[in-house]
Design a protein that fits this description.
With 382 residues, chain A is an alpha+beta fold. Helices cover 65% and strands 11% of the residues of chain A. Chain A has three domains: 178 residues, no CATH class; 64 residues; 120 residues, Heat Shock Protein 90 (2-Layer Sandwich). Chain A is elongated and about 110 Å long. Chain B is an alpha/beta fold and 213 residues long. Chain B folds into two domains: 129 residues, Response regulator (Rossmann fold, 3-Layer(aba) Sandwich), CATH 3.40.50; 84 residues, Orthogonal Bundle (Arc Repressor Mutant, subunit A). Classes of the chains: A alpha+beta (382), B alpha/beta (213).
């Protein structure tokens, strides 16, 4: 029941709320020729491009909530963008108008007996094709409202699924970008990520450790054979180097402490390892997908590093909170402020890329003189 | 000495058994934390060697069980083996200043003689902290007292963390023992460890920067 309720509420909100996206798409569609005409390099062009970018990110998040998936990747451009805008301005608009009509009409009908007397009980049409003149008729109107509600609730999920599927079908990862080999996009699905980390830990790493131990034991019986011993020693040195490299790879993708202690424990460890006093507040987070845990972890790690290295801070504060569809990660320091995303390849720039790859968002507040606050919102679809 | 090993990888468990038996220890091998209290209640083991990640959930069961066992049996020595270095884990083990704890990467087991002497140090109530832990702490912040150490002093400190004596450090680094004494003295000064700090001053040196943020 709660699942059904949640799913229906999400779908209804998605389809009805789509009116805003559809209208924005309508306007953007009209502005698209202008953007092409003035070119991407002009201020107006940049602004229009940013708007369409934000709109597509927003739509991916909305669709993700209905479809219980995270849609990542670069924002689409050109023909694919135009196709999506066209879809939203037509099918999207029609769907949301129908949903809006059912929602508002239904509310109107349900409450009709309550407000009809206030209008002086004149003959009126609360719904198209329904003319009310007497009380017995008026009392039947809420039944129509119930019928509207049933149609809306029954239709919301299929409609929401259809519309969001169509929508992300146009907004999927830009094939050109994928061909260009954009490795900064972490597109591995969460469960897969954890499976890989486990496989490396229990498989590859364990095997290398075992090989090293077995060779070490073999060395013991070769006391009088110096050359063989040295060869084995060299082989073991190679194995150790392989282990260290493997650790480096695993650390960069899914830090093992996330598997062992979860996001809350891992962030606490970051806090206690921080060179500055760090206060960590973690709400119960429930189930968070490993990919999102990993993204959240790197946000905290990067922000704490910045606070220590550049901000001249005396203290930091980390908070993790959760609502059903979102994970919020906030890191504050009392340093000098003035943090900015800077050039491509910088820490905060990288965080934004990573966050947006997960269809999340990041906001930085860092006035000169401090404090600096970084708030990252990541979708959670557990 | 009687050793209880908690390791779910059978081949590694057997390897550990072989090495420890070679070192003259009596070994029991178990592949999970289930029933650990029962085994320890028989006052069987004097040293517990535990892998961090163990069944059933493969999170940090081994470490949690080792810490719990140590609280329950204060005399018990504990050596935790890990596939990667986590400063936090070392700090949790060292939070109890009694000594007799160790935290080593699994990489170290293959260097059999060194591993056995680390086991020996833990058994005799000292500490054996993986040099990678110290390496992870050094250079993490320019404001940190550790950043003031010279490279040589950092090397020496890492070996102190491992639990080596000054003579052993001198052998390892191929320098004289008096040079090591000088470095250790400099480390104590830079980390603010005065002569009044009694007892495990060397352990304290490692503890200090684990504790100092």
């Amino acid at each position: 029941m709660p699942d059904w309720f949640l799913g229906t509420t999400r779908a209804t909100a998605y389809v009805a709320g789509n009116i805003f996206v559809a209208l924005a798409a309508f306007v953007m569609l009209a502005a698209l020729p202008v953007a092409v005409l003035v070119g991407r390099k002009t201020r107006l062009g940049v602004w229009l491009f940013e708007c369409s970018h934000s709109l597509t990110l927003w739509e991916r998040r909305r669709a993700g909530i209905v479809l219980r998936r995270i849609f990542s990747g670069k924002p689409v451009t050109g023909g694919r963008l135009a196709a999506w805008l066209g879809l939203e301005a037509s099918v999207g608009l029609i769907c949301s108008l129908i949903a809006g009509y059912l929602l508002l009409g239904g509310l109107n009908a349900l409450t009709f007996p309550a407000w009809w007397p206030l209008t002086g009980m004149e003959a009126t049409r609360p719904l198209p094709g329904v003319r009310i003149t007497t009380w017995p008729q008026a009392l039947l109107v809420p039944l129509l409202g119930v019928a509207y509600a049933i149609i809306l609730l029954a239709g919301a999920r299929p409609a929401g699924r259809l519309l969001s599927t169509l929508s992300v079908g146009r907004l999927g990862l830009d094939p050109d970008a994928a061909e260009a080999g954009d490795t900064s996009q972490v597109r591995v699905h969460g469960a897969e990520l954890r499976r890989i980390e486990r496989a490396l830990h229990d498989g590859t790493q364990a095997r290398i450790v075992n090989a090293n131990v077995q060779l070490g034991i073999a060395q013991l019986s070769l006391t009088d054979r110096v050359e063989e011993r040295d060869r084995i020693q060299a082989a073991r040195a190679e194995l150790m180097a392989a282990l260290a490299e493997l650790r480096g790879v695993v650390d960069a993708v899914l830090p093992p402490i996330l598997s062992e202690r979860g996001l809350a424990g891992a962030v606490r460890a970051l806090g206690s390892r921080c060179a500055l006093p760090c206060e960590v507040h973690v709400e119960p987070l429930g189930v968070v997908s490993p990919a999102i845990e990993s993204a959240g972890y790197f946000v905290v790690a990067e922000c704490l590093t910045n606070a220590v290295r550049h901000a001249d801070a005396t203290g930091t504060w980390v908070q993790l909170t959760r609502d059903p569809d979102r994970l919020y990660v906030q890191v504050i320091d009392d340093g000098l402020g003035g943090a900015h995303e800077g050039v491509e390849g910088g820490g905060l720039y990288g965080l934004r890329r990573r966050t947006e790859a997960f269809a999340g968002s990041m906001s930085i507040s860092s006035p000169s003189g401090g404090p600096t606050s970084v708030l990252v919102e990541l979708p959670c679809v557990s | 000495m009687r050793v209880l090993i908690l390791e779910d990888n059978a081949l590694l468990g057997e390897g550990l058994r072989l090495i420890l038996e070679r070192g003259g220890h009596e070994v029991t091998l178990r592949d999970s934390v289930d029933g650990l209290d029962g085994v320890l209640d028989g006052n069987y083991a004097e040293l517990l060697i535990a892998d961090v990640r163990l069944p059933p959930t493969y999170r940090d069961e081994g470490l949690v069980a080792a810490l719990a066992a140590r609280r329950r049996y204060p005399g018990l020595r504990v050596l935790v083996l890990s596939s990667f270095v986590q400063v936090e884990y070392a700090a949790e083990l060292l939070a109890d200043p009694q000594g007799g704890v160790g935290y080593l990467l699994k990489d170290r087991i293959g260097e059999v003689d060194d591993f056995l002497s680390a086991v020996g140090r833990v058994m005799s109530g000292e500490t054996a902290i993986d040099p990678e832990v110290v390496a992870a702490l050094i250079g993490r912040s320019p404001a940190h007292p550790l950043a003031n150490l010279t490279r040589r002093e950092s090397e020496v400190l890492a070996l102190v963390g491992e639990g080596l004596t000054n003579r052993e450090i001198a052998e390892r680094l191929v320098i004289t023992e008096s040079a090591v004494n000088k470095h250790v003295g400099a480390i104590f000064v830079k980390l603010g460890l005065t002569a009044e700090v009694r007892g495990h001053r060397r352990v304290r040196a490692v503890l200090l920067f684990l504790a100092s943020r």
